[in-house]
Amino acid sequence: RPIAGLADSKKLTARRREQLFLEIRDNALCYAVAQCSREEIDELNILQASLLSMTRAIEALAITPHRVIVDGNRCPQTDLPVQAIVKGDLTEPAISAASILAKVTRDRQMVELHQEYPQFGFDQHKGYPTKVHQERLLAFGVTGHHRLSYRPVAELGMPAIALTDQSNMFAMVKFYRAAIAKGIKPIFGV
């Protein structure tokens, strides 16, 4: 049955998104939410990781759809007929529903992350580059949950004792993660 009130998730209040999330979950023929790890995003880039997440969600569906529609101008890899629709979350109820499912899932993850790192205020800014989030990054540094390729994190300029001559951004991200895992705060030099 049609669900009233579907819209671009960014234009809905958090409360309304939660209400619609439950209604979508309870009434959808099937749905799947998929994501990429922060390492995959750092390695692939945000666009390619988004497309990979779409592919994973399509593959996770309990029922194979006849066609796939996605928001934007790029299509994920799938053997199914797929159409990208720019601003599709404004015109296509299925895309609006997917947008709501994804946003609520991510926001819930940020609230959980707040339990582990309350000093960052993830429950308030949900990981977006607000002034408060950027101030907290400066005050407390980067967690293992931050994407290192994300501009506010990459621009921190953390002090370091390790150097690399890697000029490739993705190689530098791998180097950075390895250094952080060993307790070293790296800097990059070419």
Give an overview in words.
The structure is a single chain. By secondary structure, the protein is mainly α. It folds into two domains: 9-115, 2-Layer Sandwich (Nucleotidyltransferase, domain 5), CATH 3.30.420.10; 118-181, no CATH class. It has nine helices and two strands; from the N terminus they run αααββαααααα. Strands 1-2 form a two-stranded parallel ribbon. Mean pLDDT is 88; it is low at 159-163. Its EC number is 3.1.26.4. Pfam families: PHP, RNase_HII. Keywords: Cytoplasm, Endonuclease, Hydrolase, Manganese, Metal-binding, Nuclease. Its cofactor is Mn(2+); Mg(2+).
List keywords for this structure.
190 residues; mainly alpha; Nucleotidyltransferase, domain 5; two-stranded parallel ribbon
